[in-house]
Design brief:
This protein has a five-stranded parallel β-sheet, with helices on both faces. 31% of the residues are buried. It has helices at 10-14, 20-28, 36-49, 70-79, 107-117, 128-141, 160-177, 188-194, 197-200, 215-227, 239-249, 253-270, 277-282, 288-291, and strands at residues 59-64, 96-100, 146-150, 181-185, 203-208. It has 14 helices and five strands. By secondary structure, the chain is α/β, with parallel strands linked by helices. The protein is 48% helix and 9% strand. It folds into two domains: 10-30 and 211-286; 36-208, 3-Layer(aba) Sandwich (Rossmann fold). Strand 3, helix 7 (160-177) and strand 4 (181-185) form a beta-alpha-beta unit. It starts with 9 loop residues before the first helix and ends in a 6-residue tail after the last helix. Helix 5 packs parallel to helix 6 (128-141) and helix 11 packs across helix 12.
């Protein structure tokens, strides 16, 4: 085997000296792949985080298809703004709070989620207004600067009355705390926010669309190749190979990542040490559109 590792980033190249199982564990570990649209959204989030407090704060709605990198992007941002110990104060400093919207729009469950994320004791049976008072008091104490709500399209799972009440909670928190609210969800999130015209006017939109089979996609594949520690170059940007990867993943970022991880593991286990059409054909892969179909007997 040759010693040329120019097709890999340094960290990935270092794993070539380790055992196959350790290498496979590294291949399967979560990783951030930066790309222009994601970097643009991260910059928008940074701008919001530093926005001066005011009664009418700007907000952001990050929208994309399922399994297209939305949650990973905001977790990346949260990882850059982690809670910090505060030895001289009574509470830690939490600049960004990330939580998931309850599966149905329920004010009490939403406050429960906030209190749980802050490791605060609470009584689940308390009235919503008591939880609201406790949550707002704590969020002020920790110095919150941004609230991120994932799966915000869950708002649509309730009646119109419940949807309106839940959106009023979001609006109230933004006004009371004077912090930006970031909603993350599928395209249904647009409909969810639009049910409150006053609230929707405060939300800018950031779209993470499905990838097209274009030069940006080829650059993404080139980056993936450099982080997967295989001994030989796969040349994923080769036209027919790139087309096959696109067809199998259907352009969803999460599917692209999982497909290439599965293929890289297969390449290690088979000793082939590169991803090609044979390796892609060897893995048990069902395209996402086929998974959504009702199974036949």
């Amino acid at each position: 085997m040759g010693d040329d590792t120019s097709h890999l980033f340094q960290k990935a190249a270092e794993y070539l000296a380790r055992g196959d199982q350790e290498r496979i564990a590294y291949i399967r570990s979560p990783r951030w792949i930066g790309y222009p649209r994601a970097q643009k959204v991260l910059k928008q989030l940074e701008t919001l985080l530093s926005y001066p407090a005011s009664h009418r704060m700007p907000n952001l709605l990050i929208v994309g298809d399922t399994n297209n990198g939305k949650t990973m992007l905001v977790k990346r941002f949260c990882g850059q703004h982690k809670p910090q110990d505060n030895p001289t104060g009574e509470a830690a400093v939490v600049p960004v709070l990330f939580l998931q919207a309850p599966p149905v729009p329920d004010e009490g469950r939403f406050y429960n989620a906030i209190l749980e994320r802050l490791f605060a004791p609470y009584k689940s049976g308390d009235r919503a207004d008591r939880k609201q008072f406790q949550a707002i008091k704590l969020l002020r104490e920790v110095g919150l600067k941004m609230l991120i709500i994932d799966e915000i399209h869950h708002v649509l799972a309730g009646s119109m009355a419940k949807q309106k009440a839940f959106l009023n909670v979001i609006k109230y928190l933004g006004n009371e705390l004077e912090v930006p609210i970031v909603g993350v969800g599928t395209r249904d999130a647009f409909r969810a926010i639009q049910t409150d015209p006053q609230l929707s006017n405060r939300f800018d939109h950031a779209l993470l669309p499905r990838w097209a089979n274009d030069d940006d996609f080829l650059r993404l594949l080139a980056t993936f190749e450099r982080v997967l520690p295989l001994r030989y170059p796969s040349v994923l940007i080769d036209g027919s190979l790139a087309d096959k990867i696109y067809s199998m993943s259907e352009g969803y970022l999460g599917e692209i990542s999982r497909l290439l991880v599965d293929a890289a593991v297969a390449a290690v286990e088979s000793g082939q040490e590169r991803i090609d059409k044979r390796v892609l054909d060897s893995i048990d892969w069902v395209p996402p559109s086929e998974r959504r179909k009702e199974p036949r007997e």
